[in-house]
Amino acid sequence: MSGFSPWMLLVYALCIPIAVLGVWFVGNRPSLNQETESEHDSVRDTDSPPSQSQRWDGQSAHSGSSLLDRLKRYRSQLTPPSRMVTGLCMILVAYHAAAYISPDHWFGLKVPLERWYILLGGISLALCGTLAIDRLETTNDQRPPRP
Question: Is the pTM of this model over 0.85?
Fold first, then answer.
């Protein structure tokens, strides 16, 4: 175990769950029951306010639920392209965090440490862009058709 500092082990311990979560966002598709429920929810009257269980804030009825349940609920609200972008961004963050803490010869492909802000900017732009597009699509779906 020579060559491993406590910081390296700590960063690896944080990167592994983030990378696994990213793979889960990318690869795991909602089941058929979840898809039909989401189609049923999209058909409901858009003028009615969301119920307590449909809200995504700290005051909802699910605020006491586990972190995994919250992640599943959040993930189910995203479109497939947004899940893909979010998962890939998580994988990129985990990979580069592990690459920056490791010796240079362990990870051959990485953004230079002096240019970390470019990586952060690209990931932020991707996440903000995909979430903005999702929001635009949902507001366009809720608008009545023009005559």
Answer: no
